[in-house]
Amino acid sequence: MKRKLLSAILCVSMVATMLVGCGSKAETATTDTAATEAPAAADTTEAATEAAAEATTAGGKIGVAMPTQSSERWINDGANMKEQLEKLGYEVDLQYAEDDVQAQVSQIENMIANGANCLVIASIDSSALVNVEQQAKDAGIPIIAYDRLLMDTDAVSYYATFDNKGVGTAIGKYIETAKDLAAAKEAGESYTIEFFMGSPDDNNAKMLYDGLMEVLQPYLDDGTLVCKSGRTSFEDTCILRWSQETAQQNCENYLTGFYADEDLDICATAFDGFAYGCKAALEGAGYTTDNWPLITGQDAELMATKNIIAGTQTMSIYKDTRLLAEKCVTMVQAVMEGAEPEINDTEQYNNGKITVPSYLCTPVAVDKDNYKEIIVDGGYYTEEQLAE
């Protein structure tokens, strides 16, 4: 108890300091990394860009393939992009595949057959899309990967996403500061932790894990963090299709098998849905406000933000889907006009075939102390929505 009381006191001080660094104005939440001058597009995409430009004088048709409506953020992404593209005069074919890989393949095939001039794809399993992406390339249709990198293909022209490794780093640094791991190390104290990482078929998930472990691995190595299940590798902690149900089951198994006589202090999760699953498992195991663990998340969904206010989720990574949609729309517009879109990364995102020119938006950590400033004042959610 002394250890946790000391940690709580230090946490308030250290987290406040960290959050000031995240930005003191709501505007900070939607500030991107500084853009560099865009290099010339790869030769493999020039023909597609020129073909798309020929169709731009009277608008054009844009196919937008989204993975699922089971997550609030994908609904918002699709709606924001459709609205913005239609304002620019484009016809938009927005499709959700509900995490059915073959359904997404069929949807993209139909978009190609129906005369799409450009495709925006947020993949379910990009390895399953290689052939249909080649069909698009052969038809002269440029492809923009949206938030999930399209792997093992040279048919993709550009990539719009958040800094995925930066998401993991932000989660790791939040845990490090909130629990004052440096002080705990000096005092010879420790915290228990379990990991719930993203889908193995999503390149973003591995990058997030890498960023997280760059921060936390030293504390695992020296015993400041103790994972009693022993499951710390990406292969052991990844959860297929980002399944909330699997996260809950894993958490239930950990609590039963390893934490019958000791509290779990930290649930390091990569997604708000995982946080919901952990919350349900912890409630089922009898955890209360007296021993509730630190729980991380990603996407700052409406429910997650309500849980942060209520104290059953500690933090989330705020990713303004309006901003990401806006950046993707500017990419579409540039490609359709035969121009080069703004990008700010030409090194990180090698998909096994090419390094894809990318635009990375900056993620922001939010918790009970700064959600009003970042989320409410930024117009993402209203106080009324959060009070419902």
Q: Which features does this protein show?
A:
388 residues; alpha/beta; Rossmann fold; 2 domains; 15 helices
Average of the residue pLDDT scores = 88
Task: Work out the count of structural domains.
Answer: 2
Order of helices and strands: HHEHEHEHEEHHEHEHHEHEHEHEEHH
* CATH-level-4 superfamily name of the largest domain: Response regulator
Question: How many helices?
Answer: 15
Q: What is the CATH class of the largest domain?
A: Alpha Beta
Rounded Rg: 22 Å
The name of the CATH architecture of the largest domain is 3-Layer(aba) Sandwich
Estimated helix fraction: 40-55%
Main sheet: which strands, in order across?
2-1-3-4-5-11
Major beta-sheet overview? 6 strands, parallel
Beta-strand content estimate: 5-15%
Distance between the termini: 35 Å
User: How many strands in all?
Assistant: 12
Low-confidence stretches: 1-45, 51-58
Structural class: alpha/beta
CATH topology of the largest domain: Rossmann fold
What global shape is seen? elongated
Secondary structure topology:
Elements: H1 2-22, H2 43-53, E1 61-66, H3 72-87, E2 91-96, H4 101-113, E3 118-121, H5 130-138, E4 143-146, E5 156-162, H6 164-178, H7 181-187, E6 191-196, H8 203-221, E7 225-226, H9 234-237, H10 244-258, E8 266-269, H11 272-284, E9 294-295, H12 302-310, E10 315-318, H13 321-336, E11 358-361, E12 364-367, H14 371-376, H15 383-387
Parallel strand pairs: 1-2, 1-3, 3-4, 4-5, 5-11, 6-7, 6-8, 8-9
Antiparallel strand pairs: 10-12
Helix pairs in contact: 3-13, 4-5, 6-8, 10-11
